[in-house]
Amino acid sequence: VKDVVNTITTDTATWAGQEAQITQQLQSAGLGRVKVKVIGHDAYLSGEVPNKLDKERAVTIAEKAAPVKVRTNMIRVAPGNVFGF
Predict the structure, then answer these.
(1) What value does the CA radius of gyration of the chain take, rounded to a whole number of Å?
(2) Is the pLDDT of residue 61 over 70?
């Protein structure tokens, strides 16, 4: 072997950029406790929100912020403590 041409490319920088876009949109919507991981055209959500509506809203925000489809939504609904502490 005299020469090797490495033509392998990865899209990890693109995925990281999409994660940043989605994270910024989630934070702007008051969902700062939601985390996102992008791999290819798929997004995976985790974290915590106070109600089911916010869990569903996180999916909508993620899919509008970047060209991804939410494949797994592991966001936990954790309503605030009844007594406030």
Answers:
(1) 17
(2) yes
